[in-house]
Structures are given as C-alpha cells and as structure tokens.
Amino acid sequence: MSKSNTRRTFAIISHPDAGKTTLTEKLLLQGGAIHLAGEVKARGQARRARSDWMKIEQQRGISVTSSVMTFQKGDITFNLLDTPGHEDFSEDTYRTLTAVDSAIMVIDAAKGIEPQTRKLFEVCRMRSVPIITFINKVDREGRSPFETLDEVADALALDVVPMSWPVGMGGTFKGVLDFASGLTSIPEGDSREFLGKREKLALSEDVTDEIELAQGGYPEFSIEAYRHGDMTPAYFGSALKNFGVAELIDAISKFAPPPRPQSSDQGEVSPDRADVTGFVFKVQANMDPQHRDRIAFMRMVSGTFRRGMKLTPSGLGKPIAVHSPILFFAQDREIADTAEAGDIIGIPNHGTLRVGDTLSERNDVRFTGLPNFAPEILRRVALRDPTKTKQLRKALDDLSEEGVIQVFYPEIGAQWIVGVVGQLQLDVLISRLEAEYKVEAMLEASPFDTARWLKGTDAALKNFADFNKSNLAKDRDGDPVFMARSAWDVSYQQERNPDLTFSATKER
C-alpha cells in the first residue's frame, strides 16, 4: 500500500451549535492526539476546544478560522480540517473544502437539517465530496430517527443508510446499537458517558420493530455509491457523551477515500504522480502573536515531500527552499521531515505565498478551482489615528491575503473599501486590527452595494474607465473592479458594454 493510501483528509460541516467543535475534540481524544476532553486553557468557564484559538472565537464560542489537526490511529493518518461553522464564513470554508477528500456532516437530532448545513452540503456536492452523516445529541429529546433520515434523503437527494441506531432517546436513552457488530454502547458513570462497555442488549418489542424497519427500509450500503457522492452512511451518537465517535473514526478509516486526483490546467493530477505538487488553500497570519508569523497551508497533491526541498510557487516563478515545514495540531506544531499526498503542511513565509498558489518541483502545472467571490457587504475603512495609514495598509493586505476580507482601492478618493461575504467578518476585521496590528479603525457605509471583476481587451477597459472612473477600483492584485451601486447597475453596464465581462468570481 502506498503511503498516500493511508491518508484520510476530511472536514466536519455543520450548522452552528450542532456539536462540531465537541465532535472535533472527541475525535482527537479517540485518536490519542489529546488526553483530556475539554482541555482547560484558563480557569473557570473559559473552556475552549483546542481548534478555537483566536481571541474573538474564545469570546463568542464560535470557530471563525479553519484549523488543521493531524492524528494517527492504527495504520491511518487522519488530517482533520476544522471549518468555520458560522454562516458568515462561507468563503474561507469553501476554500477549506477544496482541500479535503471527504466530510462528516453533523446534524442536531432535535433540529434536523439547518440552513448552513445545506449550504455547506451543496459545496461538497459541487466537488463530489463523499459525506458520512453523524446525527448528534441522541441522548436528549429529539425527533424520530426516521424523520431525520428521511429529511436527509429528501432534502439533499441522497440515498441514506443507517449504520447504527439509538435505543431510546432523551430520558429513555439506553445506548447506541451498532448494526455491524450487533452490540450496544451502554451509558455508564455519573455523567452517563460511553466508557467502553458494549454488550448484547435485550431490546423491547417496539425497539426491535424499529430496528427491523430501519434495516429493511433503506438501501444496502455501497462504498462505490458513497465515494461517488450519491449515498451517505448515517451514524447516531452523542459527541458530548462520547457515543458513536469510535464508530465514526472506523467508518472514515474503512470507507472514506484516500487522496483523490485534483483538477489542474493539465487535466487531473493523480496522487501517484512521482514529483511533488500541492496548492495553498489558506494563509494565516499571526498564529503566534509573539512572532508575527505567516503560515501558508498547503494540500499535498502528489509525490513525497522532504524537508529542505525546493518548490516553485506559481505566483513567484522562482524556487523557494522549504526548510521548516509544519504539521499541525491546532496551535501546537512540529517540524515535518516528510509529507505525502493528502497531508496538509504549513509553510512559514513572509508574504510570498498566497491562497490559490500552486507549488511544484517542475513548475509545469497549475491547480484550478479556488475562486474569490463577489462581496455581499462593502464598507469604507476610517482610521481613528490618521498617522497609522501605513500600518492599516499592511494589515488590510495581510488579511485579504488570508481571505478574511477583500480590499478595493478606488481610482478616485482616498478611503479604502473592504468587502466581505458576511457581517461577522467585519467584527473579526476590527478585532484583529486592534489585537494584532494596534490599529483602531471604524467602518463606515459605502456608496457601493457589490463588486464585479472586469475582463476584456485593453481598449474596451480604457473606454469603460473613461466614463466610469468614479466607479472603478483595483483589487490587491491590481486587477480592475467595477464597484456597483445596485444589481440594476451591474445589468445596465453589462448591456452597454458587451465587450466586457462582469464576473462575480475571480479564480486564482
């Protein structure tokens, strides 16, 4: 078996509060990556899972950046990419989902499919990412398991196969029956957690009837249909009480695909290709505020990476030596001597690597499919202290490089404009400007409603600029952007300028 076949690179997708952060922590606990659930970072109530490290995350109890956690169980190396659960972070989440081979979809047993879950599922569907469903919080009162399974089947157009079943729910909860072994995980101890005891449970007639219906009423599991994105195996459990987590790891190990081929301008690149290739799907500045570092997260696509190897970034054109590649466990990190296809490595750099860059030994391939999206909210940035202009420019460039915001520099007027896909990103911007760059800024209303990237001949662009200079800006790459006051404005200009393309996405 090649080393890349032992990799499972996956994400967890869910609506906020469905239990994603708790499940992440329990997967790490099961994988031996941590030794104490709810590891305490401070006394009292400031308990945070290890994947949430930014100040604003700790204050609000939400994940707003994507972290990477690597752990091993048996012969399998798991790379877990933690995605922001908040609905405002679709762009960062989208980019993270370009770097995974499969996903776990967490659904609250009482609430069913919620809007953010559906949105993230659609991103997975676009990329044919196979999904395992985890129906969480079955130890509490919830809806009928059949109702939840049927909703997944109907709303998401997936074949659903239950692989386990809750024996009772809420006050009548007696454990989770695993169909493969026929054993039930039993709650024990004061907290009624699963502590490892599995046994053949005598089931009431009602529960037996339910289980027969569950096993007979849904299709048989097919690994081909699952890996094709047409079928989801469903597991019931409680992340908080540790039910169903071990079964979930086993499922990822047995069913989830090893590294998949990735699309490029040369066609699909196989993980078996001999030379090293990869792409940057995320850049994170200031993970360690003491060192003002900048880490580019690279998804390995092919080859065996060795520490000190020279790779050429597509955005730079000349090779760089990667002396200190990092493997992650949330904020903890260690130097990686080697990495295989499917692994995520962090490359420390000073602004040379950007989201969407391809890194390769031969510099003969470019990976595709990491777009920027037109912002849905635009705001002007105003400094409280006008002498901090230089620091603000640096901060906005850094944060736009990470994908937290987009920055537009108007052709007329001095105030820069930031664009985001959701309100929370603006809160993160102000918080990080202050905490990391010591810049106090305010956000003011912008006269513009949305933005479109302009493409066309030099003559067509010049002709457009002559009449629309007050609506033109450059993005941080220097590409021309039409700043529109309304959707009608976009349509009107498209009709008047058929030689130009007004694009809502920009692929890097």
From TrEMBL:
It is found in: Cytoplasm. GO terms for cellular component: cytosol. Residues 5-260 form the Tr-type G domain. InterPro entries: EF-G-like_DII (IPR053905), EFG_III/V (IPR035647), G_TR_CS (IPR031157), P-loop_NTPase (IPR027417), PrfC (IPR004548), RF3_C (IPR032090), RF3_dom_3_sf (IPR038467), RF3_GTP-bd (IPR041732). PROSITE patterns: G_TR_1 (PS00301), G_TR_2 (PS51722). GO terms for molecular function: GTP binding; GTPase activity; guanosine tetraphosphate binding; translation release factor activity, codon nonspecific; translation release factor activity, codon specific. This is Peptide chain release factor 3. The gene is prfC.
